[in-house]
Amino acid sequence: MIKPEHPKLSLSRQCNLLGISRSSVYYNQQPVKADDIELMNLIDKQYLKTPFYGSRSMTTYLKRDGHDVNRKRIQRLMRLMGLEAVYPRPRTSIPYSGHTVYPYLLRGMSIDRPNQVWAADITYIPLNRGFMYLVAIMDWHSRKVLAWRVSNTMESGFCVEALQEAIERYGKPEIFNTDQGSQFTSQAFTGLLQEHGIRISMDGRGRFHDNIFIERLWWTVKYQYLYLRTFDSGTELREGLRKWFGFYNGERPHQSLNDLTPDEVYYENLKSIQEAA
């Protein structure tokens, strides 16, 4: 999305709008060692079970599991994965300095209809010889995954693409909730929300439960699908996720939805609203 020869916007201004550092434009990602990938996958699985683990507790866990590691190495790997060592929530979204601070609008709110509140989050996805990041946009009421994208970097472009697809396919929500990560506070992302008149809500720093339904989605997709398979490439991962999200939305009943699927709740409630209008 960066255009070094842009006639009107400097490189620094483009980076500012997208919520990325200028140095990242020139950075060539180095391959990750196989033993580091193995450790990262173990960290990912354990972090889903114990999101309150920082690098110290994670190092202790891995040592007790028979791995010869030190805390400095685990800190480095957790930063690479986007896992925050202090606050009890994934740090796949890192705050961008100086961004507009938006209030959390969902406290005490009754969320009882589709397209009232959408939410988004990012998570680490292991591959056979590497890793990627996954962003998903969810309708909070029905738990329906409206759009998703995978990327090998945590820049904002893949999040903006997912948001554009969700709006094109399903209209727009009244409120959109995220954390305060740079992908979601970038001008490209918030500008698209504002362009469509969508109210912006953002979690408080470290508030793991503010986006709890997507956190549950991450546990489900990993333990019921991703950890049971191996993927050699981003192409394989995308095809697998396409099928799985189709199953999740259209076939998998949710106990919290009275054993209905997200699609059933989303479309039936939307139909009732339209008929009542």
Give the number of helices: 10
Q: Please tell me the CATH architecture of the largest domain by its name.
A: 2-Layer Sandwich
Structural domain tally: 3
Please outline the major beta sheet: 5 strands, mixed
**Major sheet: arrangement of strands:** 3-2-1-4-5
Number of strands: 5
Strand content: 5-15%
Structural class: alpha/beta
Which stretches of 5+ consecutive residues score pLDDT under 50?
18-28, 85-90
Q: Which class of the largest domain in CATH terms? A: Alpha Beta
What's the helix-strand series?
A: HHHHEEEHEHHEHHH
Radius of gyration: 19 Å
In CATH, the topology of the largest domain is named Nucleotidyltransferase, domain 5
Amino- and carboxy-terminal Cα gap: 41 Å
Give the averaged pLDDT, no decimals.
Answer: 84
* Helix share bin: 40-55%
CATH superfamily of the largest domain: Ribonuclease H-like superfamily/Ribonuclease H
Characterize the overall form.
globular
Please give a structural write-up.
With 277 residues, this protein is an alpha/beta fold. It has three domains: 1-30, no CATH class; 31-86; 117-276, Ribonuclease H-like superfamily/Ribonuclease H (Nucleotidyltransferase, domain 5). 42% of the residues lie in helices and 13% in strands. The protein has helices at residues 11-18, 34-49, 55-64, 71-81, 157-170, 182-185, 187-195, 212-224, 234-250, 262-276; strands at residues 117-127, 130-139, 145-151, 175-178, 199-202. The chain has a five-stranded mixed beta sheet, with helices on both faces. The longest helix has 17 residues, at 234-250. The protein is globular, with a radius of gyration of 19 Å. 35% of the residues are buried.
